[in-house]
Amino acid sequence: MKLICPICQSKLNRSTREAICENNHHFDYAKQGYINLYRSNKPFHGDNIEMVKARTAFLEKGVYAFLKEYLINLNTTFHPKVFVDLGCGEGYYTDGFIAQEKYGFDLSKDALKHASKNDKSTQYVVASIFHLPLEGDSCDVAVTCFAPAATDELQRILKPGGKFIFVTPGPKHLFEMKAVLYDTPYENIMEDIKTDLQLIQDEIIENVVTLDQETLYQLFQMTPYTYKTSIEDKQRLLEIPTLDVTCQFRIRVYEKAL
Prior knowledge:
The protein is an alpha/beta fold. It contains eight helices and eleven strands.
């Protein structure tokens, strides 16, 4: 096990229902299987149960299945022994990855309850991706989908030659939905990240899908637009029976120097 104690940073070892370090710090596993290693005075900011349910309902319809398939195939080319998903949510992408050891990290207990119940191949952990309870130089591949890149921690936890797969929305992602919501829709800005990791691959993949009203609104609830859109503009979206929407993603692969 590559997990370390969030209090003293010594190695954790698992007993039947808890993890224990050499300094006798104990951490219980939840009945679903995840473990809470978040130790901070800052409050949780993970997704609540309503957001988890909306995202799960949407993802289970397979709209983003083409992205999941792409990422699984990409990860397979790297043959990782130890794989980590940073900001894993309810584990939709995590469960498909293949590795001898898999870890998923997120701050949302509600998301990890779902993930742990449905994916026994991964050890899910409540923790901040910016303060990971992981040994240094221990991971072959890390992935982050739609969350910030924890560049300092990635530099620390990846083995020399380890890969970081970073997924963000592409410029035209959900452009048609934004055209309904806003008078002046805009393309997403593509920003570089500051890191000592070397960029070795940069691709954009996309798929145009026809969404019914229910699926379209579930998608809307997954996005930051749900907090930025007026009631009147939301109503416009609810009045559309179907909409063709571009799902576009930028996928970057970084490598840690040998």
